[in-house]
Write a structure and sequence with these properties.
Blueprint lengths: L1 H20 L13 H4 L6 E5 L7 E3 L4 E9 L11 E5 L6 E2 L6 E2 L14 E11 L10 E23 L18 E2 L7 E11 L2 E10 L4 E3 L3 H6 L14 E9 L2 E2 L12 E3 L4 E8 L8 E24 L3
Parallel strand pairs: 2-17
Antiparallel strand pairs: 1-3, 3-7, 4-6, 4-8, 5-7, 8-17, 9-10, 10-11, 11-16, 12-17, 13-14, 13-15, 13-17
Length: 317
């Protein structure tokens, strides 16, 4: 009888353990994306021409139409004022009715902690084709370019170690040691690549490396620069391309942007060969004990990338 009771007791105990180990929190969202998951990737907007729009061959009696499919692969929402797509590369006296002022990019949300999939949108262009036989043309081969000009933002949160007295010989048990943080990408075409932590007594300096990891051109942040991004405008000047604006640098709510250099009068950083380095510092650090915290960076900029397709236009007779 005792053996039976012992067996029953063990059965109930083991069954209970299995139930507890398999417990699922009903309030836990299994689709939730972690910070590390969604703030990755080196792209902002990705474009493609809808298949056969335009087709490889057209006749001048047919209308011209194309649809640009847009994917927002990054983490910043686009579609603000000045975010546009332009068509170029064609003779506007032959392909007529295409707005040279571009078409507004619709609002497309970026990926977030709760939205893992990239946002989608589209922009369509429609026009007419002139009778090319009247121009004594047997055919009109053309490469159509679609150019996206849009504002974007990079947010990087970097865990760092702050040591108020790194050369102390009395405090040998430390919770952390200041060292470089290698980040990679943050779900945007401009990335904070690495942050070097350079400690000294009462002051910690941060050497921050920034890089263009996308496949387009970066330019100064602002509506006026978005307008000049258009292929139909006078264009961006040499001192407007390869600039990123430093929006914020803070540590536990303490803004240290004013200590960062080199910045111009509008807070922009010049990139050379797609890279830049700035130096910021946190001073008047109290105490002797090291601690962990985060440095938060925000970069703002305009971005431009283009895609191409080919078509040939023939006269109808």
């Amino acid at each position: 009888m005792k053996k039976i009771l012992i067996i029953l007791f063990l059965f109930v105990f083991l069954t209970g353990c299995q139930s507890l180990s398999g417990f699922t929190n009903p309030y836990q969202d299994s689709t939730q994306t972690s910070y590390e998951d969604f703030r990755t990737g080196s792209e902002g907007l990705i474009m493609q021409f809808t298949q056969n729009m335009p087709p490889p061959q057209l006749y001048d009696s047919e209308p011209f139409a194309t649809i640009i499919e847009i994917t927002n692969e990054g983490t910043h929402t686009v579609g603000g004022p000045g975010d546009k797509i332009y068509l170029s590369g064609f003779d506007s006296t032959i392909i007529q009715g295409i707005p040279l002022t571009g078409k507004q990019i619709p609002t497309i949300e970026g990926r977030s902690r709760y939205v893992a999939e990239p946002g989608l949108g589209m922009v369509d262009f429609r026009g007419t084709i002139r009778d090319i036989s009247s121009l004594r043309m047997d055919k009109y081969p053309v490469i159509i370019a679609a150019t996206a000009c849009y504002g974007y933002e990079t947010i990087a949160t970097v865990p760092v170690c702050i040591d108020p007295d790194p050369y102390s010989t009395t405090n040998t048990q430390k919770v952390c040691i200041p060292e470089s943080a290698i980040l990679g990408t943050q779900g945007a075409p401009i990335a904070v690549d690495t942050v070097d932590v350079l400690p000294s007594k009462g002051t910690t300096r941060f050497r921050i490396y920034i890089r263009n990891v996308g496949y387009g051109d970066v330019f100064r942040n602002g509506a006026e620069y978005l307008d000049r991004c258009s292929p139909h405008s006078k264009g961006l000047n040499f001192d407007e391309i390869d600039y990123v604006q430093l929006g914020d640098v803070s540590i536990a709510g303490i803004n240290i942007k004013q200590t960062c250099k080199p910045l111009d009068s509008t807070g922009h950083i010049k990139l050379t060969n797609g890279e830049a380095t700035i130096l910021c510092e946190l001073s008047n650090i109290k105490g002797q004990t090291p601690y962990t915290t985060t440095i938060n960076l925000v970069l703002r900029y305009g971005y431009r990338n283009s895609i191409f397709t080919e078509t040939e236009i023939f006269p109808i007779d």
